[in-house]
Amino acid sequence: MIIRSLILAAGLAVSFTATAAAQQFGGHVEYTNIDREGDLEILAASAELSGRVGGDLTVFAANIQLDAVIEGDLEAAGANVEASGRVLGDAGLYGGSVESDVDILGNAELFGGFVNYAGEVSGSLDAGAGLLEIDEGAVVSGAADMGGQEVVLRGRFLSDVDVRAEDVQISGQIDGDIEIEAVNLRIDPSAVINGSIRYTGPNEPDIDSGATLSEEIDFTRRDVDIDWEGDWKGVNLSDLDIVPPKEFFAVLGIGFSFLLGLIALALMPNGVARLSHKFREQPLLAPLLGLFLLPMGMLMLLMAGTIILAITVIGGVLIPFWWMFGLLAILLAYPLGAIAVGDMIFSRLGRSSPGFGMRLLGFLVILVLSTSFWLVVPPLALISWIILSWIGLGSWMLAAFGRKDANGALASTPPAEEAV
Predict the structure, then answer these.
(1) In whole angstroms, how far apart are CA 86 and each of 34, 48, 72, 73, 90?
(2) How many helices (H) and strands (E) does the chain have?
(3) CB-hemisphere CA count at 13 Å for 271?
(4) What is the structure's pLDDT at 248?
(5) Helix, strand, coil tally for the chain in percent (to 5)
(6) Do strands 57-60 and 22-36 pair parallel, antiparallel, or not at all (unpaired)?
């Protein structure tokens, strides 16, 4: 009955962490001819997707291949990004290499080392790259704002265009006004520019006689400072909003804490049992002691120990190990607190000395419940982490330096009670 109740609690906790979006984590993630409603988030080493996504699609992977209809927004970031299909919302493609002919009904952002785009954008376009190519067949209906080291415009622009680059080459059609700031400007014979042209740069523009210009170019000779290193218009590629989703960090936190707790349970089962027993004996003193120790008290303790070690003959060699112990204590405080609270639940349910399996189960339930707050109410996740860390660190100190039990410690438990 106890196990069933805890499994049910774990299931509820997992359900709390679920959102309208589905998350997929893995080395290689592949969806072929997918047809799903709702949002989808993918974090993987490589990702391939085709079909339809009824909501937003977010993909973070080294290599990304997309050929799908996205009925929401699209955000894809990776070393190599290839995207085709249709996006009914906004789209952002970021990578070392970005090649796309995806049609975008909203606004588009394209940033990378190399960007080649040949689709249609119904909204505005913001793009920046070392080499940016807006290829033949591309149509941009809204305003286009572009920058980079080299920008090549072969497509059609229905509205105004603003370009800032070292080298600009135009061979497509621009129906609106265009403003260019560049070191070198070349206008090819196939170029058609129906609006005004304003060009600022140190060199005369190179205009082929076959080019069609509705007005004479307005040229201002002036040195321009174009230093493309992935930084354009005050936006650095590394600062773009392409971090993994919060669910990733929640799963990562559960995994890391569970691993630390599992190691503690495996390597020092009697110590963990004594720690849990101390928390059950003094449930108020343990977190208060942890409150003092974390973080200022622990820092003061580490500094005091460092000074004592520094004035001894061989103590200087031990200082790094002393600080490693302090870091380990801080990292272990949270999982040990979760174990202690899980044991207290068992104690209230009539199992005062749970075995390894039940202790591990209780630990996992508390861990998942605590981490689920990160997805639902993030401030509560921070509060639960702090309180569990206080409990873990305070109980650890009571077990290590407090008064021994009448039998010396919880060094051993009867076999019947140790079993799950």
Answers:
(1) 14, 16, 10, 10, 11
(2) 9, 23
(3) 13
(4) 63
(5) 40, 35, 25
(6) unpaired
Report which of 188, 190, 224, 186 is spatially closest to residue 205, judged by C-alpha positions: 186
pLDDT at 233: 44
Which residue's entry shows tokens 């170019």?
217
Rounded to two decimals, what is the model's pTM? 0.58
Average pLDDT over residues 75-87: 94
Report the alpha-carbon distance of residue 179 to residue 204 in Å, rounded.
15
The first and second tokens of residue 17, run together, are 């962490």
CA dihedral angle for residue 154, residue 158, residue 159, residue 161, rounded to 10 degrees: 0
For residues 44-72, average pLDDT: 93
Joined together, the tokens standing for residue 82 give 């290839």
Average pLDDT, the chain: 82
CB of 13 closer than 8 Å to CB of 365? yes
Helix (H, G, I), strand (E, B) or coil at 20: coil
Q: How far apart, in Å, are the Cα atoms of 158 and each of 125, 200, 207, 358?
A: 12, 22, 21, 67
Do residues 205 and 221 touch, judged by C-beta distance below 8 A? no
Tokens of 209: 């006689």
Percent residues over pLDDT 90 in the chain: 41
